[in-house]
Automatic annotation (TrEMBL):
Pfam families: Methyltransf_25. This is Methyltransferase domain-containing protein. One of its GO terms (biological process) is methylation. InterPro entries: Methyltransf_25, SAM-dependent_MTases_sf. Residues 67-166 form the Methyltransferase domain. Coiled coil: none annotated. Gene3D superfamilies: Vaccinia Virus protein VP39. It comes from Novosphingobium jiangmenense. Keywords: Methyltransferase, Transferase. One of its GO terms (molecular function) is methyltransferase activity.
Length: 208
């Protein structure tokens, strides 16, 4: 970028670039929260203990496709990729183009696929990438804040896209999402992780 272009660049854009450069992932995450607080649901990423607790039910040897809704800056992406088998795939779906662009620039793993879109379209997205089903789906979306009808649409699509024996891994900051999960998943295991900001309610919905 030339000095003339820099001079013409709006002040807000220059400030945004500085925040991204100096604050790193935390700055990107916080910016995403400010732009779409109802979709991000928190102002800081999940703790390492939350990540381990949420992923503790996954049978990695049998996991060929792992899907995540609302990956943010990749807090779960990297731990998932560390555990995922070499021929596995991780598809992440987010409506925030800033998060998708950041992940595409910072995660250089051939098993990783970042999609700008809606979790309600997970069935079409999974099929478009050559899969019939997902083994596990992870979500930190704030279901209680989603627009009317979107939460049930995501839950229904998730249940359909999972293989029998697969699971929907949901971490929230209230237990209200469990009522919605119960409409689609007969078996829901429950967990809680206090070492998180805020403390995290965990639900594992199994497709029987």
């Amino acid at each position: 970028m030339t000095s003339t272009q820099v001079a013409r660049e709006p002040l807000l854009q220059r400030a945004k670039r500085k925040v991204e450069r100096f604050a790193g992932p935390a700055g990107i995450f916080f910016k995403g929260f400010l732009k779409h607080p109802a979709m991000v649901g928190a102002i800081v990423p999940s703790s390492n203990r939350t990540i381990e607790r949420v992923l503790s039910v996954v049978d990695w040897e049998e996991c060929r496709l792992f899907v995540e809704y609302g990956p943010g800056v990749g807090t779960f992406c990297r731990p998932v990729l560390e555990k995922l088998r070499r021929d596995g795939r991780l598809i992440v779906i987010d409506t925030n183009p800033d998060f998708i662009a950041y992940l595409q620039k910072t995660i250089g793993d051939s098993r990783f696929i970042a999609v700008h879109g809606s979790a309600a379209d997970v069935e079409e997205i999974v099929k478009a990438h050559g899969f019939d089903h997902a083994d596990y789906v992870l979500s930190g979306l704030p279901f209680s804040n989603l627009p009317e009808g979107v939460g049930p649409a995501i839950m229904g699509a998730t249940h359909r896209v999972l293989r029998p024996g697969g699971a929907f891994l949901v971490y929230q900051y209230t237990a209200r999402a469990r009522d919605l999960m119960g409409q689609f998943f007969r078996r829901i295991d429950k967990g809680f992780e206090p070492v998180n900001i805020p403390p995290c309610v965990i639900s594992w919905g199994w497709k029987e």
